[in-house]
Specification:
One of its GO terms (molecular function) is nucleotide binding. The protein is of the alpha/beta class. It has twelve helices and 14 strands. It folds into two domains: about 130 residues, 3-Layer(aba) Sandwich (Rossmann fold); about 200 residues, Dihydrodipicolinate Reductase, domain 2, CATH 3.30.360. The chain has a nine-stranded mixed beta sheet with strand order 13-12-11-10-6-9-8-7-14. Strands 2-1-3-4-5 form a five-stranded parallel beta sheet, with helices on both faces. Strand 11 and strand 12 form a beta hairpin. The N terminus is likely disordered.
Length: about 400
C-alpha cells in the first residue's frame, strides 16, 4: 500500500492516538490497535481502556502507556488531552454501542478526530444528534466498517461505477455466523452478554452487529441508496431478547431512468457451520460479480454470455482502486487485519491533509458519520418492519 510521505525525510509524524474501551479481555480493541500500526501512521499514547480504575491502569500498563495518560473516565481523558501540548489528535472508540454517543461527543467538541466502531450509536435519535455534533465540530469522523477496506471490494466498486455491470438489478448480501447458536450469554461470555443486551447493544441483535456490515457493504459497492425494506426477525434461542436471525427484502432507489434494483439480505448468528460468512453478489444488465470474505483476494466476474473470470488482488485485470490499498504482491494473501488497516490509513491521510490545510485526495474513501446514521436507521427499520409482520418500511 503506497503510504504518503513514507521516507525518513518526508514522512508525516505519527498521529497521536487515544483509545476508549479495548482493555483486557476485549476483542475488537486489539484489532484496532493492530490496524492502527500496520501502516505505521499512529502512536497509541493515551487510553481510557475501562470504566474500572483498576482494570484501566492494568490495561494501560500492559500496553506500555504512560501511567499519567491512563484514565478511568473518557471525559477526563478528553478534557486533559485537549489541553496538553502533545495531547491526542484522534481517538478510537471501541466500547459497546451505548457508550459511542457520549464518548464521541466529548472528543468531537474539543476538536479531536474520532474513529468509532460500528454501529454509530444504539439508537437513531442519538445517531442524528451525534451527526450534528460532528458536523459542527470541524473534526473528522471515521466509522470502521472495515470490510470496505478490502482491495477486491474496492475493485468491485470501481467496476460498477465504470458501468461494467450495466444497470444494477439484483443485490444479494449475507452474513451468517454460528457462535450464538446456544445461550452462551447466560454463561457470562462477555462478548455475547453485551451484544444480546438491548440496553448496551440497542434495538438490533444480529441486525445491528453484522447485518449493518452486510447492508453497508452492499451500498458501498453498488453506490445504491436503500429506499425501503421488509424484515422478518427472529430470536431463535429461548430467552434471548434481541434478534439472532433476520431475512430482509430490499428496494433501492432508482438511478435516473433505470428501474430500481431489488435485493435480499440474510444475517444470522445461529447458522451452524458458518464462522464469518460475509458474501456479496451483484447482478446487472451486462454481468455479475461475486465476493466472499473467506477468500477475500478473489473476485469472480461474469460478463453476460461469457465464461466466468477470476480477478485476483494485484493480478491481471485488477485496477487502480484495488492497487492503492494493496500492500504486497499478488499471490500473498491479504486479509481482515489489512482491510481494517486500510480504514485507519485512509483516516490518517484525511487527518494529515486537515493538518496541512489542503484538500484530501479524492481517492481517499472511508465510512463517515452519515454512513453511521444510515446504519442505525437500517436497524430500527428492520425492527419496526418485523413488529408489523414484515411490512414495508421507508428509510
Amino acid at each position: 500500500m503506497a503510504i504518503e510521505g513514507s521516507s525518513e525525510q518526508t514522512r508525516q509524524p505519527r498521529i497521536r492516538l487515544g483509545m476508549v474501551g479495548g482493555g483486557a479481555g476485549a476483542f475488537i480493541g486489539a484489532v484496532h490497535r493492530i490496524a492502527a500500526r500496520i501502516d505505521d501512521q499512529f502512536d497509541l499514547v493515551a487510553g481510557a481502556l475501562s470504566s474500572s480504575p483498576e482494570k484501566a491502569i492494568a490495561s494501560g500498563r500492559d500496553l506500555g502507556l504512560d501511567p499519567t495518560r491512563t484514565y478511568s473516565s473518557y471525559r477526563d481523558m478528553a478534557i486533559r488531552e485537549a489541553k496538553l501540548k502533545n495531547g491526542i489528535e484522534a481517538v478510537s472508540i471501541v466500547t459497546p454501542n451505548h457508550v459511542h454517543y457520549d464518548a464521541a461527543k466529548e472528543f468531537l467538541r474539543r476538536g479531536i478526530h474520532v474513529i468509532c466502531d460500528k454501529p454509530l450509536t444504539s439508537n437513531l435519535a442519538d445517531a442524528k444528534k451525534l451527526k450534528k455534533v460532528a458536523d459542527e465540530s470541524g473534526a473528522l469522523f471515521i466509522l470502521t466498517h472495515n470490510y470496505t477496506g478490502y482491495p477486491m471490494i474496492r475493485q468491485a466498486r470501481e467496476m460498477i461505477a465504470n458501468g461494467e455491470l450495466g444497470d444494477i438489478r439484483i443485490v444479494q448480501a449475507e452474513y451468517p455466523q454460528d457462535w450464538l447458536t446456544e445461550n452462551i450469554e447466560q454463561s457470562g461470555q462477555k462478548q455475547a452478554a453485551w451484544r444480546t443486551d438491548p440496553s448496551q447493544s440497542g434495538a438490533g441483535g444480529s441486525t445491528g452487529d453484522i447485518g449493518t456490515h452486510a447492508y453497508n457493504l452492499a451500498s458501498f459497492v453498488t453506490g445504491l441508496e436503500l429506499d425501503s425494506l421488509a424484515a422478518d426477525l427472529d430470536s431463535f434461542v429461548e430467552g434471548r431478547r434481541l434478534d439472532d436471525n433476520a431475512h430482509l427484502l430490499l428496494r433501492f432507489k432508482a438511478k435516473g431512468s433505470e428501474k430500481p434494483a431489488k435485493g435480499m439480505l440474510w444475517c444470522s448468528q445461529v447458522a451452524p457451520g458458518h464462522e464469518n460468512g460475509l458474501k456479496l453478489r451483484v447482478y446487472g444488465t451486462k454481468g455479475g460479480l461475486e465476493w466472499t470474505q473467506a477468500d477475500p483476494n478473489y473476485l469472480w466476474y461474469t460478463p453476460f454470455g461469457e465464461q466466468k473470470r477470476l480477478i485476483t488482488r494485484n493480478g491481471a485485470g485488477s485496477g487502480a482502486a484495488a492497487a492503492r490499498v494493496s500492500r504486497i504482491p499478488s499471490g500473498h494473501p491479504e486479509g481482515y487485519l489489512e482491510a481494517f488497516a486500510t480504514i485507519y490509513t485512509e483516516a490518517a491521510r484525511a487527518i494529515n491533509a486537515r493538518k496541512k490545510g489542503v484538500a484530501v485526495d479524492p481517492a481517499v474513501i472511508y465510512p463517515t458519520v452519515d454512513d453511521g446514521v444510515k446504519g442505525v436507521a437500517f436497524v430500527e427499520a428492520c425492527v419496526a418492519s418485523s413488529k408489523r409482520n414484515g411490512a414495508w418500511i421507508k428509510l
